[in-house]
């Protein structure tokens, strides 16, 4: 079917990306990766590809649509999952049950709004997940220019490797739980820097080169 759609659209003025979601019986993530699809929705499947609790940043040759429908249905998806996914370069649709607020799903709803706002501020087309740059392991980077880092827990501080980033960077923190931002003091690159978090709970650090 994917090949049929692509063949049919090949002579059209516009072609659409064609996707494939996890097959509920007998499917594997491997089958998705080997398919001719442009985007795929995987399942948690195994520890290395647990797109629910530890979303993988490994590039599989496809756009990953990390959809709760194919992870657990209506019973999962919170702010931590949204930010982990986004900082690993994944797209994050949530299967809504349309319950009126306040409800536990508000956490994911709010976080999806947060990541959308940042996606409009950063040069997202130039940013890739680079786990090794941040102690937290959740880092989108346009090396030397911009860094968006998620801290899922309440560690208090973490390091970022700016060895190859020269210049001075603006520092902005987002409190994921309250959606408030805190401006930090600018910091120089050229080394491994430690960033004390200005609040408890999950947070986001945004670094951007000045000038």
Helix residue percentage: 10-25%
- CA-based gyration radius: 19 Å
Structure summary, number of beta strands: 11
User: Which word captures the global form?
Assistant: globular
Question: Could you describe the largest sheet, including whether it forms a barrel?
Answer: 6 strands, antiparallel
Helix tally equals 4
What distinguishing features does this structure have?
4 helices, 2 domains, 211 residues, six-stranded antiparallel sheet, globular, 11 strands, Immunoglobulin-like, alpha+beta, three-stranded parallel sheet
Short description:
With 211 residues, the protein is an alpha+beta fold.
Give an overview in words:
By secondary structure, this protein is of the alpha+beta class. The chain folds into two domains: about 1-120, no CATH class; about 125-210, Immunoglobulin-like (Sandwich). The chain contains four helices and eleven strands; from the N terminus they run H-E-H-E-E-H-H-E-E-E-E-E-E-E-E. A six-stranded antiparallel sheet has the order 4-5-6-11-8-9, covered by helices on one side. It has a three-stranded parallel sheet with strand order 1-2-3, with no helix packed on it. A hairpin with a 3-residue loop joins strand 5 (about 140) and strand 6 (about 145-150). Helix 3 packs parallel to helix 4. It is globular, with a radius of gyration of 19 Å. The chain starts with a helix and ends with a strand.
């Amino acid at each position: 079917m994917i090949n049929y759609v692509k063949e049919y659209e090949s002579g059209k003025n516009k072609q659409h990306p064609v996707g494939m979601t996890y097959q509920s019986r007998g499917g594997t993530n491997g089958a998705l990766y080997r398919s001719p699809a442009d985007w795929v929705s995987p399942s948690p499947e195994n520890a290395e590809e647990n797109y629910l609790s530890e979303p993988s940043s490994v590039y599989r040759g496809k756009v990953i649509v990390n959809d709760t429908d194919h992870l657990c249905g209506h019973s999962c998806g919170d702010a931590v999952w949204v930010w982990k996914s986004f900082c690993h370069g994944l797209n994050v649709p949530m299967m809504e049950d349309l319950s009126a607020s306040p409800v536990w799903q508000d956490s994911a709803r709010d976080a999806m709004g947060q990541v959308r706002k940042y996606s409009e501020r950063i040069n997202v087309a130039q940013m890739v997940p680079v786990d090794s740059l941040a102690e937290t392991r959740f880092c989108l980077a346009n090396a030397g220019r911009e860094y968006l880092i998620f801290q899922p827990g309440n560690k208090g501080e973490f390091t970022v490797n700016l060895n190859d980033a020269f210049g001075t960077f603006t520092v902005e923190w987002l409190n994921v739980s309250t959606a408030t931002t805190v401006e930090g003091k600018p910091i120089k690159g050229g080394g491994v820097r430690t960033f004390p978090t200005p609040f408890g709970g999950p947070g986001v650090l945004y670094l951007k080169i000045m000038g």
